[in-house]
Amino acid sequence: MPRLHMHVTDAAESPLRLALHELRGRLETPDHFPPTAQAEADSAARAPRIPAADGAVAGEHTLEDATDLPLFTLDPPGSPDLDQAVFLARRPGGGYRVHHALADIAAFVTPGGALDAEAHHRVTTLHFPDERVPLYPPVLSEGAACLLPDRDRPAVLWQLDLDADGAPAGVRVRRALVRSRAGLDQAAVQKSLDDGTAEEPLALLREIGQLREEQEVARGAISLNVPEQDIVEEDGRYRLAYRAPLPVHGWHAQISLLTGMAAAELMLSAGTGILRTLPSPTHAPALAQGGHPSPEGSVARLRLTARALGVDWPHHTSYAALLRTLDPRRPAHAAFLQDCAALLRGAGYTAFDGTAPPASEVLHAAVAAPYAHATAPLRRLVDRYTSELCLAASAGTEAPSWVRGALAGLPEEMELGTRRAHRVERACADLVEAALLRDRVGEVFEGMVVEIQEADPTQGTVHLVDPAVIGPVEAAPEGPALPLGRRIPVRLAEADPGHRPVRFTAA
User: CA quadruple 212, 213, 219, 224: dihedral positive or negative?
Assistant: First the structure.
């Protein structure tokens, strides 16, 4: 699912940053790697080794040399872990060829070693508004395994052929030595595309991206352009500023989606793999603040949120169609898109070995096709396994024993790691919302009741109109039950960053 992007822009020793530091302690997020894991990473950074078929590592193997491909990375400024690079070209006779290189982290991690064990413990990189807690030590994720410009790097290289309409026409996966030619900035690339100065590989990013977006619409997929949030300090107070993603961000994301869909098809054809699956959002329960399913359903709650924010959602318009009408540059739409990301949290992982599951069990509803996590190997544990499974499927060989041996336990591991990431995200959102409102305790705001507890209708959740904050609300003493779906005045009862999240009472 799309991650909520929040960034702190104030001084390093500000109260908000200190509260975030304390939050990491309360959540028991690791602040260093165990010495044995760090030592393995340091050694591997000096001498990466190509994984052998039996799951060990073999230093005598040589990689196919693909350093002639003029690959480039495309990321926001300051991105430290560059785990994918692309090069786009036209195919003779029509259509397109996408070269997609992914960092080969398996060349640095020995199965069963201390670093492997730590990765299984961490599962994902954790993102806080002021810093990140990486999955792998920075010596790898920001150094030896990272696809930095002008450095030779081992990679899992995908070759994805498309027809003239952008539909898949062939796929090949192999290990190769690659060399990124440039680390490009999204804003600069967007400018070159807009003013017509972009060279063909970049121009093809727009051309292919738009074709893939058309394919996405035809599938009925859900596309979320979740804006980033900057927490800005002004005169001792905080406010939220939204930054809408650039079109080039969406076109680049289409390349990742293409690879994830191709990975799923490869693994399904081989009968061994692990997919990212998601039920239809119309059947997925909403989660209340405490994590309990809401009887009203997630889409019903989002309709109330849309009303609270003044987002027009006609009853005949589907959720997927609505999202394509939203403009993340408009504050109300930006806030609504942030809430929409929660709808995709019912996703899980489906592993199989020997027989592919039935078609009804392999769909990712947001993608509207089978899909696999494949393109974030430096930030997500499962992607290392996906790469190995797809390399084997493409070569027509069996997957390594260390991969197949881990398959049965991976879905639960990934679920635990995903829940941890969601707890971090929710705790950060609570802290930031409390920082936004810390000086306004006692004030009355207008908000819509978007959820009530089935067992106690005096307790629920309110979505403020301005600022776009969500928090628990309780009915006034001796007052009526909370009116679901109605706007009411609410008084801010608590807002203490790092100690007590926002809490409202009906006024």
Answer: positive
Per-residue pLDDT tens for 364-399? Answer: 988 999 999 999 999 999 999 999 999 999 999 999
- Residue ranges in 82-161 assigned as alpha helix (H): 114-122, 138-139
Q: Are strands 286-287 and 5-8 parallel, antiparallel or unpaired?
A: unpaired
Give the CA dihedral 349, 300, 451, 496, nearest 10 degrees: 60
The Cα 167–Cα 169 span in angstroms is: 6
How far from chain centre, in Å, is Cα 463? 24
Tokens representing residue 302 in the block: 């989002």
Polymer length in residues for the chain: 507
Asked whether the beta carbons of 330 and 293 are under 8 A apart, the reply is: no
The lowest-confidence range among 139-153, 311-325, 405-419 is 311-325
Phi and psi (nearest 5°) for 258? -60, -45
H/E run at residue 90? strand 84-90
Report how far residue 246's alpha carbon sits from residue 206's, in angstroms, rounded to the nearest whole number: 12
Can you read off the two tokens belonging to residue 350?
């489906």
Q: Characterise 228 by phi-psi region: left (phi > 0), alpha (psi -120 to 50), beta (else).
A: beta
Euclidean distance between CA atoms 460 and 470, whole angstroms: 11
CA separation for the pair 23, 495 (Å, rounded):
15
Task: Give start and end residues of each alpha helix (H) in 324-473.
Answer: 331-340, 381-395, 401-407, 410-437
Single-letter code of the amino acid located at 320: A
Return the residue matching tokens 């060989």: 397
Inter-residue contact 103 to 140 (CB < 8 Å): no
How many Å apart are CA 462 and CA 68, to the nearest integer? Answer: 56
Q: How far apart are CA 450 and CA 243, in angstroms?
A: 25
The DSSP bridge partners found for residue 71 are 180
CA distance 281 to 503: 28
Which tokens is 425 given?
């995200």
pLDDT digits 0-9 by tens, 167-223: 999 999 999 999 999 999 899 999 999 999 999 999 999 999 999 999 999 998 887
